[in-house]
Amino acid sequence: MIPGSTADFTGAHLNSLKHPLPADQAEAVFTTGKAAYLSAYAARMAPVIAAEKATWAPATGEPLLEPLQALFEPIMSASDEICDGIGYPVELVLGPETVVLDFPKRTVREPIPEERFRYSFEIAPELVRTVLRDNEPDWVNTIFLSTRFTARRVGGYNEYLYTFFKCLTDERIAYADGWFAEAHDDTASIILDGYEIQRRCPHLKADLSRFGVVEGNTLTCNLHGWQWNLDTGHCLTARGHELRCSRL
Which positions make up the signal peptide (predicted)? Predict the structure, then answer.
């Protein structure tokens, strides 16, 4: 189906299908005519994209450190669960300027010489200046879903980090931080290869009776690959996320 197509169904049975184009032209959109269709679509949308870009803030201007401090530091101070879940400083490369979101210390700062990062984002400064100008409360649905950025990470996906960027108001961060706090119910236990451990993974609540694998004194949750030391409960993948466990 394409925009303008209409279909009539009875249950799972297709009774009729009509397109706004002749059937052979509609089918060509997905087969032999795909390249031509995409080229024509790009040409049609070029003025729309140009008009949207014209509304962006300029790439150059005052340093971004202070406005990012004003935005992020109050959110950090109100979100202990999320900041502890992120657990590391995060690098933002914004054209010629680099800003560090130091989640363990709840500060936004300049980088330290030779500093290395577990998580890094490279974003065009005009995009950041635009969302700051517009008081955008959700960078995930603006900057990140636009795919106009480069991301690097060491280790697994961190749900807390992207949640932070979705919750850039007092109300949003309070709700999200409270949700994570309430989600940390580890009262149910299972026995796995000589250890009593909490049933739900501290990362994203996978059932460790299904996804947990013990090798020596290391537990791996095979849903996302996170690991824990069963002698200490310490997470080997990211800071925080302690596991309740004991040897039987």
Answer: none
CA dist 99 and 21 (Å) reads 51
Query: Is 221 a residue whose pLDDT tops 80?
Result: yes
Within 103-167, strands assigned E span 107-109, 119-123, 149-153
What's the token pair of residue 169? 């108001």
> If you count DSSP H runs as helices and E runs as strands, how many of each does the chain have, helices first?
8, 13
Partners of 175 in the β-ladder: none
Q: Mean pLDDT over residues 102-129, rounded?
A: 97
Give the domains, in start order, of the chain with CATH numbers.
Answer: 23-55 (no CATH), 65-181 (3.30.1050), 189-247 (2.102.10.10)
Query: Is the CB of residue 197 less than 8 Å from the CB of residue 209?
Result: no
Per-residue model confidence as pLDDT tens digits over 3-23: 999 999 999 999 999 999 998
Position 144, amino acid? F
